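Handout, page 2. Input:
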Amino acid sequence: MFEEKMKLFARQDVLPKKVIDIITNSERPKKKRKMQERAPIMSNQVTQRLKQFITNEINGKEAKLVIQKKLYASDLKKSQNRLNMPMKQVETHDFLTENEKRDLKNKKELEVPLLGPRLQMHNEPMVLKIWHMNSTDNYVLKTNWNNFVKKNEEDLKKDRMIQVWSFRREEQLRFAIACLERVDGQNDDALQHPAVLN
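Output:
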């Protein structure tokens, strides 16, 4: 009697569809989630000139690539007023000192000057902060980001590939943004007109 009931239960036409789906899916090999591939890190005239400018023209030290990313509509949207840098995409976290890391983890904000893609120091400092999201934590540059975008609107456009670099001058953390698609001698003029330093 028990065996007959088991045979009856095992027939697919008796099992509810959901149960059949669970059984058949569990037997199939699970597909691995596709990891989003990062674009190879670019090095060109723009990045070389930026590093030379930081080191030779403004006596900056410890230049480090923080992130290479495509600019999304949300990065340029006025209502957002921030540049998002997902931690999963960051090349290194060593651009921060231990004290700065601790301050950011404790929800403090760091005021940081920002060098634009034409090698001009923006006259309003940005604020670096950590935003905690469901999928990932993010570094964000905010507060005066909209003004920075407006002053650099020729370079900062949707889908453009940029790099964000960190460096230090007189021990203070600073950032620089390079627009990788600008290879038209963008920085020649800037080198003739030294950046305004804060």
